[in-house]
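Protein 1 of 2
SEQ + STRUCT:
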Amino acid sequence: MRVLKLSGHQIEEADFLAAFATAVASITQKEQVVIVNGGGKSIKAMQERLGLREEKIDGLRVTDDDSLLVTEMVMSGYVNKLIVRALQQAGVNAI
């Protein structure tokens, strides 16, 4: 099994995501793949749209209750769908 980390800074770049999905498709012919992804850029953008302020201490994001709700919404309702859609379009049976 191979674990791949996908940066949250590139998830919304369609060309990058398509190329990533194509690369994953070639790997999945030989072994299973688990993708770990970020989403900080998308989370921060949604926080700003909702009037929430991102808080960091020593470079680490501090997640209050409202921001945790936004994080869950963005990661499961938006970012995950982008990745799964791109993988499925590349022929990967992604869930």
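Protein 2 of 2
SEQ + STRUCT:
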Amino acid sequence: MPTYLLEVSYSVEGTKGLLKEGGSSRRETITKMIEHLGGKVEAFYYTFGEDDCYVITELPDETAAAAVSLNVGASGAASITTKVLIAPEVIDAASKTDIGYRAPGK
């Protein structure tokens, strides 16, 4: 199953909701959402800085990842950036794949 990093930033309204419900309640809600889609939450952390929360999750496919991104963004409570995480073994296989590329001027 593909693994994704979700970088979440709460809006003012989302932060108010977080203050009301608490951090572990939001983790529970997100975990249920991911499991509903057939996925699994590997890690869930709050952070200081530009982003407020990082979630590492496995999801069945791009459609599920896009559904999370669209619905979280549409809620207005948070913005989300989704990144695909690539295992070292995938990079090993990619490094051995001939793609027929020629650099400019060579």
